[in-house]
Amino acid sequence: MPESKVRKAAAEKQKAKKSPDARPKKTPRAPGSRRWVPPTFITVGLLGVAWLIVYYVAGQSIPFMSDLGNWNILIGMGGMAAAFVIATFWK
Fold first, then answer.
1. List of residues 6+ apart from 89 with CB closer than 8 A
2. CA separation for the pair 37, 11 (Å, rounded)
3. How do residues 41-76 score in pLDDT, each as one tens digit?
4. Transmembrane residues, as ranges (predicted)?
5. In angstroms, rounded to a whole number, what is the distance separating the alpha carbons of residues 51 and 69?
6. Which H, E and C letters describe 37-53, residue by residue?
7. Where are the domains of the chain?
8. What's the pLDDT band for 24 if we cut at 50, 70, 90?
9. Tens-digit pLDDT profile for residues 4-14
10. Separation between Cα atoms, residue 86 and residue 37, nearest integer Å
11. Cα–Cα distance between 61 and 68 in angstroms, integer?
């Protein structure tokens, strides 16, 4: 009975199996555990919200907050934006 023709890739695999020096190619590994992401983004987001609440409620009576002025809004929104960026790392 005649043998069927073998594809090039299949022939290379057969040669690799036969040779003792052939090692399987290392595939890139996925990043490690991402269990840190949910607590981190929740904490950072809540800190941003808390910063804004404290600024609006008691910002004039806290010395460093009154010195920052409207930069407090940027700080609070920046915390919430950072939480969003961190949340994109979650699988």
1. 34, 37
2. 45
3. 999 999 999 999 999 999 889 899 889 989 999 999
4. 36-58, 70-90
5. 13
6. HHHHHHHHHHHHHHHHH
7. 35-91
8. low
9. 666 777 777 77
10. 7
11. 12
> Which helix H or strand E contains 86, and what residues bound it?
helix 71-87
Q: 3-state DSSP call for residue 10?
A: helix
pTM of the model: 0.62
Q: Are 88 and 36 in contact (CB under 8 A)?
A: no
Contact, 77 vs 43, CB < 8 A?
A: no
Q: Which has the closest alpha carbon to 49: 81, 26, 13?
A: 81
Residue 45 to residue 51: CA distance in whole angstroms: 10
Mean pLDDT of all residues in 24-38 = 76
